[in-house]
Amino acid sequence: MSGLKLPGVGSGFPIQQFVDATVSAERAPKETMLARQASNINVQLSSYGSLKGVLSEFKDSLKALGEEEAFQKRSTSFNNSGFVNAKADKDAVAGSYKLEVTQLATAHKLGSSYIPKADADKKLGSGTLNFTLGEGGNAQSFGVAISTDKSSLSDIAAAINNAEGNKGVRATVVNSEDPDTGEPSSRLVFFSEKTGTDNKITVTATTSGGNEGTATLESLVAAPSTVQEAKNAEITIDGARVVSQTNEIEDAIQGVTLDLKKVTDKEDPTKTDIKTSTTLTIGYDKSTVEKNLKDFVASFNKVMGAINQLTSYNPETEQAGPLNGDSSTRSLTSQIRNMLSEPIEGAAAPIKTLTDLGITSKQDGTIELDEDILKQQVEDNFDRIGLLFASEKGVSNKLDEMLESFVGETGVLTERNKSLNEDMAKLDKEAVNFEMYMDKFEERTFKQFTSMDIMIAQLNQQLSSVTAAFANMPDFSGKK
Fold it and tell me: How far is residue 17 CA from its own chain's centroid?
């Protein structure tokens, strides 16, 4: 209870102070117990949370080694860079290829007639622009209707770009000098979205009238000029010519996608730094696998380091880790160690265990990696490493299944976390109920002390009356 701490009316002693002391004595043991229980639960929640975190990280590191593709990736490199980029999938055959880029694919660009820049915002009138992409049977055509009120150059460009049936033509307004007159002028430039000769642009127009100047839609595209020719990409691979509509060429080499960036140099006896070709080398992506194996060791050691810290015991200080003696953690440690030492079903000699890769256990449960052994095995038995880790019963899948039983949706640690959170919720409810009890206890205690004070006041009043009565009685002589 809050308020003024006034002394009792009858007794003069401080009632509120007596109430506070009584309530505090009642509150302290229960509060201490609740705080201790909450602290224990929070420590366990934090500990299990930390353990789940490192286990999930370890589980993620297994993904990089658990799929067969992890050991089927290919690396690509060039002796002369800047001309071609390459991506190789698992179907690519290791080897080297001489590449000469003779031409890059370009998109077709057409320019309309020039009109004075001052007329660029004037209306050219209504009509239809007719476009054709390509030639022959594969050609695609569409029309763009132009209304009189929206027939300036910028309006026409917007109409083309937003046309619902547009097959791949874009337009923009270019402001420059008219090469014939040297006067400031404007024109439309049409360009194909796709490269290659199959995407040449043809444009014609029909005019309905309503133009403000001398130019019309029809005159605008009557004699379009070529701004950029449509070209196909051309490359030779070990002397064999390959032509492509785009600069991205798939499967000219099995399993390889080439992205042409620059034409290689022409022969020139007057120059010394000539790069007339570049050599593509395809190999197994051994460096990534080595990195993934090192990450595996580091993640495993992080798990064991966390477990050792959480389950530790210091005999000198008699201090124990928060999960010391925890059965779930003991089970986890035992299962991990057993799996790492077991031969793998489906693995092939000379790599049947982790030890064959140079991975060995230490006394504290962590593992160490002999990088020299690892490099040699990666170099000599690359495909066998995949069998050890990525086969159906390989290291990655076995560990992943075991870890899932601990950190998955129904895993041991997940369920333990749920149980602890439920305990914390019950404890919170108990604390709320205890506060309600203490409020009533304080109110009852205050009433009791107040009643005592009133009783003392009554007794004091009676005592005063008796004393006064005796004071007024006559003595034995008959006098007062």
Answer: 59
Please give the Cα distance from 428 to 312 (Å, whole number).
Answer: 30
Q: Give the Å distances, CA to CA, from 253 to 97, 136, 223, 375.
A: 9, 30, 43, 29
Pair 91, 255: CB distance under 8 Å:
yes
| Distance of alpha carbon 307 from alpha carbon 318, whole angstroms | 18
Q: How many CB atoms lie within 10 A of CB 238?
A: 10
- Please give the backbone phi and psi of residue 345, each rounded to the nearest 5 degrees, phi first: -65, 125
Structure tokens at 152: 């300036």
H-only helix segments in 162-285: 217-220
Separation of CA 360 from chain center: 33
Neighbours of 259 (CB within 10 A): 12
Minimum mean pLDDT range among 243-247, 304-308, 381-385: 381-385
The Cα–Cα gap between 247 and 89 comes to: 19
Closest CA to 357 of 378, 342, 343, 336: 378
**What is the spatial distance between Cα 479 and Cα 125, in angstroms, rounded to a whole number?**
140
Task: Tell me how crowded residue 409 is: count the other CB atoms within 10 A of its CB.
Answer: 7
d(CA 300, CA 360): 12
pLDDT of residue 479: 58
pTM, rounded to two decimals: 0.62
Integer Cα distance of 163 and 125 in angstroms:
18
Q: Which is nearest to 355 in space by CA: 333, 340, 376?
A: 340
- 307, with CB counted inside 10 A (0-12, 13-18, 19+), is buried
For 435, the token pair is 């506060």
DSSP state of 213: S
Q: 469 falls in which pLDDT band (50, 70, 90)?
A: confident
d(Cα 268, Cα 283) in Å, to the nearest integer?
A: 32
